[in-house]
Amino acid sequence: MSGIRSYIVNSGRMGTGLTMDADFSVEDGLLDVFVVSMKPLNLMSAEARFLNLPSWSGGLYYWRGCEITVEAEPEQAIWMDVECYGVSPVTAEVAAGALAVVAP
């Protein structure tokens, strides 16, 4: 899959409590992956609205998985939590249930 940007997240929920979809969960043991296609964003948005296309037809692709590898040519900088992690390729893997959280 070719794209201009990709995101790997453990939850579609933001710190404000807003969520992109009710199916996102930090407890499901899955990573959520989004890739924006190489089409110009304004063209893609116009096509999707005009033709009433589903998101994959409009240039946004989505998958879930336990282990995700991102490769790019040429190598690209990889950022994690607003810090530069290194360069591609990189593999992200979820460790389901690895962190116990106790809340009052």
Task: Give a written overview of the molecule.
- This protein is of the alpha+beta class and 104 residues long.
- It has one domain.
- Helix content is 14%, strand content 33%.
- The chain is built from two helices and seven strands.
- The protein has helices at residues 41-51, 55-58, and strands spanning 5-9, 31-36, 60-65, 67-70, 77-80, 83-87, 90-93.
- Strands 1-2-3 form a three-stranded antiparallel β-sheet.
- The longest helix is centred in the middle third of the chain and has 11 residues, at 41-51.
- The protein starts with a strand and ends in an 11-residue tail after the last strand.
- The model has no long low-confidence stretch (mean pLDDT 75).
List keywords for this structure.
two-stranded antiparallel sheet, 104 residues, 7 strands, alpha+beta, three-stranded antiparallel beta sheet, 2 helices
| Fraction of helical residues | 10-25%
First and last CA, distance: 44 Å
Kindly report the spatial arrangement of strands forming the biggest sheet: 1-2-3
- The computed structural class is alpha+beta
Global outline: globular
Strand content: 25-35%
The total tally of domains equals 1
Low-confidence stretches: none
Helix count equals 2
The ordered string of helix (H) and strand (E) elements is EEHHEEEEE
Instruction: Please describe the biggest sheet, giving its number of strands, its sense, and whether it closes into a barrel.
Output: 3 strands, antiparallel
Total count of strands: 7
Mean pLDDT: 75
Based on CA atoms alone, the radius of gyration comes out at 16 Å
